[in-house]
Specification:
Strand content: 5-15%
Structural class: alpha/beta
Radius of gyration: 22 Å
Shape: globular
Helix content: 40-55%
Distance between the termini: 23 Å
Number of helices: 16
């Protein structure tokens, strides 16, 4: 799709994991299409690995990359954070303000609304990426966050869901979307589809992801302990990633007598982590559309995963291979089968890979998200002229047209 140059600012709280990969890939593709793109994220999350990725991205963004302290939970400090973000975003004069995750989405929509009152009128776009939709609707936290989502829905111009599951969860827990909304799957690059082989000294299993209960590292460790009791030895295993519960998982490994079999490496690139073990295990309790599953399948690595969130949409006709979230017995049996039948697991990996290429593409993802921006700005496809070389040079003229259309919302 040909689009007029836009000034796009992405706002995401945590620059880690799949949500940051999504924003990073999207921002780069949008820059390649001639848009001016900026990013805002938290300054207190992540370590050296994340800092290196952020600095690598910073040089590619026309509108820069800025970091501000952003707390995960609701706190009084949100007021000062909102003011600091507003001052920064105001000066960027965005055409589109795209918030990712619950906190990023709240900042984007509140600040976008205030900018609208002052004449700028950016399109306010929100991608939940799971976020507040993971909370149970009948528990206190869930009731609070879902009420806030309903209120913020009134000042939203476009909603982008990464899976059918996420869209259904929004409708069930928040209500029918008032704004333009679309399901846009996460995308992979051509490099992601190059097969990865395990090292000769590879461990039996690797867990890759944030070290918090939502992702199931505790289940992974417990299954290793069950296998040690059953087989007389603990399989070798690696946990790749970091997170708020890491200390508790290390203590769990020590308490269960698995210290000699389990290694914690900290975060690393997924394709490097794939080389460390024969089978990837992702025992998530909840997900939206996890990149790590997409990357594992594309790299043709044996995989054990749960029927959580949008994962069945990735597996398609192979969804019967998934195990139930939180079901430790099923997880233990699946890992035991992988130990006993490595050739079968590798054949399954080869069989699944061709299903991804057409559906999960960064180019397709970017095109569909940009179309949501145009809808939110009130620009019909027939109104978009063919992209000409001089169009980028006439950025201000193009943007004034966009603002004129957005003022009619």
């Amino acid at each position: 799709m040909t689009t007029p140059p836009m000034r796009i600012v992405h706002c995401v709280r945590a620059p880690v994991g799949g949500i940051f990969r999504h924003v990073r890939d999207l921002a780069r593709c949008q820059e390649a299409l001639g848009h001016k793109v900026g990013l805002i994220c938290d300054s207190t999350t992540g370590g050296a690995f994340e800092d290196a990725q952020i600095e690598e991205l910073r040089s590619t963004l026309s509108l820069g990359l800025a970091r501000f302290p952003m707390r995960r939970q609701l706190t009084v400090q949100d007021f000062s954070a909102t003011l600091a973000l507003y001052r920064h975003i105001r000066d960027l004069k965005p055409t589109v303000l795209h918030g990712h995750g619950a906190k990023g989405g709240a900042y984007a929509r509140l600040i976008g609304t205030y900018l609208g009152l002052r004449g700028q009128r950016p399109a306010r776009i929100y991608s939940p990426h799971g976020g507040s939709l993971h909370y149970h609707p009948h528990r206190l936290e869930g009731r609070v966050y879902h009420t806030l989502e309903r209120l913020l829905g009134r000042i939203t111009d476009g909603l982008i869901f990464v899976s059918d599951y996420e869209s259904a969860a929004y409708e069930t827990k928040i209500g029918s979307a008032r704004a333009t909304n679309r399901i846009v799957y996460n995308g992979l690059s051509k490099q992601d589809f190059e097969p990865v082989n395990a090292n000769e000294d590879a461990a039996d299993f690797v867990f890759i992801g944030m070290l918090r209960d939502l992702k199931g590292p505790d289940l992974f460790i417990e299954a290793l302990y069950n296998l040690r009791l059953k087989l007389g030895r603990a399989p070798s295993a690696i946990l790749v990633g970091d997170g708020p519960d890491e200390a508790r998982y290390r203590e769990m490994v020590e308490k269960l007598g698995l210290t000699g079999a389990v290694t914690f490496t900290g975060p690393m690139k997924a394709r490097e982590a794939f080389k460390l073990a024969k089978t990837v295990v992702i025992p998530s309790r909840a997900e939206a559309m996890p990149y790590i599953i997409l990357e594992t399948v594309a790299a043709q690595r044996p995989l054990i995963a749960t029927r959580a969130g949008g994962i069945p949409e990735i597996f398609g006709k192979f969804a019967n291979r998934l195990i139930e979230p939180g079901h430790i017995t099923q997880l233990t049996l699946a890992m035991e089968d992988a130990l006993a039948n490595p050739e079968k697991k590798q054949a399954e990996a080869v069989e699944m890979r061709p299903c991804l290429a057409e559906t999960f593409s960064t180019d397709l993802m970017t095109d569909r998200i940009n179309s949501v921006y145009l809808d939110a700005l009130g620009i019909a496809p027939s109104d978009v002229p063919a992209q000409q070389p001089e169009l980028a040079a006439n950025q201000a003229t193009s943007l004034s047209s966009v603002y004129a259309r957005s003022s009619q919302r």
